[in-house]
From TrEMBL:
The keyword Ligase applies. InterPro entries: aa-tRNA-synth_I_CS, Glu/Gln-tRNA-synth, Glu/Gln-tRNA-synth_Ib_cat-dom, GluQ/Sye, Rossmann-like_a/b/a_fold. Residues 9-274 form the Glutamyl/glutaminyl-tRNA synthetase class Ib catalytic domain. Belongs to the class-I aminoacyl-tRNA synthetase family. Keywords: Aminoacyl-tRNA synthetase, ATP-binding, Ligase, Metal-binding, Nucleotide-binding, Protein biosynthesis, Zinc. The keyword Aminoacyl-tRNA synthetase applies. It comes from the Bacteria. GO terms for molecular function: ligase activity. Pfam families: tRNA-synt_1c. Its EC number is 6.1.1.-. This is tRNA glutamyl-Q(34) synthetase GluQRS.
Amino acid sequence: MDHDLKRTFRFAPSPNGYLHLGHAYSALLNFDLARDCGGRFLLRIEDIDTGRARPEFEAAIEEDLAWLGLEWERPVRRQSAHFGDYARALERLDEMGLLYACDCKRSDIARAAAGKPDWPRDPDGTPLYPGICRDKRRRPATEILRAGGVALRLDMRKALALTGQGLSWREFGCRDVAADPAQWGDVVLARKDTPASYHIAVVVDDALQGVTDVVRGRDLFYATSLHRLLQRLLDLPEPRYRHHDLVLDETGEKLAKSIASTALRALRAEGWTPADIRRRVGLIL
Ligand code: GLU
């Protein structure tokens, strides 16, 4: 069958630590869903944060996934090799007048929000940007970034005015979910040290790779509002979404890459088998 007609799933880890049980669940679920519908399964290495990504973690990811019994298409897309694709998307938003260069420090934002308990916060709990640089707009913003500017922000009000109402997404097992990108405010889409944010890279890559089904953890549920907005602005196709539950540790807390005890390689060294991992995350073959 032609690739274009196949449902396409992906697992997209960031190589800044060892994979743990939560990653195993996400990777196995994507793999199983792809296999069950005769679809494609891709691995994408999300290493745009070159300060934190490490080649040894990338090698460990492939080793752990192969040990779990997964197979994926090659070549693997590594985001650090595609900054040009993200720059083109940013330039397009810039040409639409939707970006501005911002040189505020975290402390400038904290000062604006200080003593105001009602100051709006994004879904990650970060105070929304007060718009200090929005009105100093100089264009093209992407050139300012290249010339040493600090960050590029999306002018959320302008973006919403362009896309209008009614942005939503198809979430597995639910009615359509209404997207609410405004809750992210004037989000940063690029920084001097990281020339593409996760948000811009993920929507560009999902489109370029023909991903039809984005299956990822609940922790990224709210980010989907922003992803839908960027897809609409950039004329990218809309994938289906499925935000799965997170695997919790014995105390009911979210697993973190820093908790070495749930790293797949630690469990493997203790004698766990891939079947044990599947049972622990609730995915029996
Ligand atoms: N790279 C992200 C992470 O490791 C996942 C991104 C996604 O699945 O959209 O959390």
